[in-house]
Specification:
This protein is mostly helical. It contains two helices and no strands.
Length: 60
């Protein structure tokens, strides 16, 4: 994934049939959060709890 294959996935072999789509699907099921002005941890925790309750996804 990085230059010079330092973090090549899968390591030392080629993908088997269907493996690439599984890896990409995992990446699509993630959320990246960026905070530019610091974090209000109390507000973040409350919002996260609401999302857990709403989507029942077992986020933790």
């Amino acid at each position: 994934m990085k230059s010079n294959e330092q973090e090549r996935r899968p390591s030392g072999r080629d993908f088997v049939s269907g493996e690439f789509s599984k890896v990409i699907q995992k990446a699509l099921n993630t959320v990246d959060l960026f905070f530019t002005d610091g974090i209000d941890w109390k507000a973040f925790f409350l919002a996260f709890q609401e999302l857990q309750a709403q989507y029942h996804s077992g986020l933790f």
